[in-house]
Design brief:
11 helices; alpha+beta; globular; about 35% helix; five-stranded mixed sheet; six-stranded mixed sheet
Length: about 350
Amino acid sequence: MLKKINLIVLIILIATVFYGCNKASEDVVYTGIYIFNENENIKSDYIPDEDIALSDLVGQSIDSCVIITSRGEEVIMDGNTILKKGEKGIQAEFDNIMVDDIVGIYIGDEIPGISKLYYDVKDSIDSEEKVLAVFLDGFSYEQYLILKQSDSLKFLNGVFLTPARSVYVPVTNAGFASMITGTLPPVNGVYDRSYRGFNVESIFGYAKSLDKKQLLIEGDIKILNTEIEPMLSVDANKNGDTDDEAYIALIQAMEDDYDFLFVHFHGIDDRGHSYGPYATETMEYIELIDEYLGQIDNFWGGKILIIADHGMHKTESSGDHGECRYEDMIVPYFIRESTNEK
């Protein structure tokens, strides 16, 4: 009798576990992903109905792709990658490697990540070359392409280098951290706007260790806890912007013998949120920043590196970012080589 009871209990337990697993799978809410390259969204809000190879899905041969997860990991795969529904969201499987909870897929490997800025600044520091890094918050590659067609960016059009890929989540804190540490969020520890400290040395710490004279010029708030304190820019003329004050502070700083200067302009992102990324107010402001950069070029003989942390997509009423999609993830990168004449 006891054996019979134990058998019944075992059957009930197995049935309960089986039902629970099926129930958990049924309860998963799948969020569609974007599949994009450097020029467009190839698939938007995509959820696989069945297991499918990535190359079959997009209808083209794929030599390389970057699988991006909700925690900001990036895994290199190829067109044989199988997309499927998993227990934790959409999965990607390739060569016995399973990646869970993916949020987007970048097709291609020919463009750098925004972490390239760190290495380019470091190369200049190591070679005793003066360098200026300009951080254009919220400036997307799509915005640049539109303005390039109208030939309205007199300075930037002449120094464009390459599109670059932001990190997930494409917001300021995470993007800034990647730019100055050369690493992804799982390494530097900055995943979104709620993080201010990071786990690895930044380019400011590296320059400090070499006794380089450096300056970080910010807007009116401190974004990350960098190894040097930023010079904050107060909206002295009450025009609603701090970029003009940051610009003046930068011009003044160039009179001193700095090895490394870094300036963060916020106004493109601010207008994108208020009016939309392609609104007249936003696009004309990008042209103003281009004028600033042209004047900066007249005073600085060292190398100039210009990059954005993320882009922005259009919403019904304005603009936003934070999604793993072309508009938010692809930004322009510019380099003006040293002239040594100024």
